[in-house]
Specification:
Blueprint (H helix, E strand, L loop, with lengths): L6 E4 L3 H9 L6 E7 L5 E8 L2 E7 L11 E6 L2 H12 L4 E2 L4 E3 L5 E6 L2 H6 L4 H12 L6 H9 L2
Parallel strand pairs: 1-4, 5-8
Antiparallel strand pairs: 2-3, 3-4, 6-7, 7-8
Helix pairs in contact: 4-5
InterPro entries: 3_dmu_93_MTrfase, Glyas_Bleomycin-R_OHBP_Dase, PhnB-like
Pfam family, one: 3-dmu-9_3-mt
Protein name: 3-demethylubiquinone-9 3-methyltransferase
Length: 153
């Protein structure tokens, strides 16, 4: 049976990125590192939350874009804050509405797991509009504020 594995191209820091990513999530690990004869990492196989990934040090010329991002759903504000802060560490850049670029230029969305329910407003278009307006004013998402917007606050 075929499988699909996301494959990420880095200039020269695939191993550092993989090591950083696996430190953030349970059921995550660096599985293997294929090296060039001089010992430089070439291809890094790693697992995040049980999902396999591969990363390659392919050199410059192929930067990451916002057209592909990784969405991390979290249950609590504490978890959101921890992951958000870790992904921004050492040169990441916040964007808007829960999106950020990590220090390697990969785009992430750190969102509440209940975001879909909050955005639908339980079928209430007014609640949906309030949550959407609240989210548009945020860089890092604030779960209590989104919940308050959904409830009418």
């Amino acid at each position: 049976m075929p499988t699909i594995t996301p494959f990420l191209w880095f200039d020269d820091q695939a191993e550092q990125a993989a090591t950083s990513y696996v430190s953030l999530f349970p059921d995550s690990r660096v599985d293997s590192v294929a090296r060039t004869p001089d010992g430089t990492a070439l291809v890094v196989e790693f697992t995040l939350l049980g999902q396999p990934y591969r990363a390659m040090n392919g050199g410059p010329g192929h930067p990451h874009t916002d057209a592909v991002s990784f969405q991390v759903d979290v249950d609590t504000q504490e978890e959101l804050d921890r992951i958000w802060d870790a992904l921004l560490a050492d040169g990441g850049r916040p964007l808007a509405c829960g999106w950020l670029h990590d220090r390697w230029g990969l785009t992430w969305q750190v969102t509440p797991s209940m975001m879909g329910d909050l955005m639908t407003g339980g079928g209430d278009p007014e609640a949906n509009a309030r949550v959407f307006r609240a989210m548009q004013d945020m860089v890092k998402l604030d779960i209590p504020a989104l919940q308050a917007a959904a409830a009418g606050g």
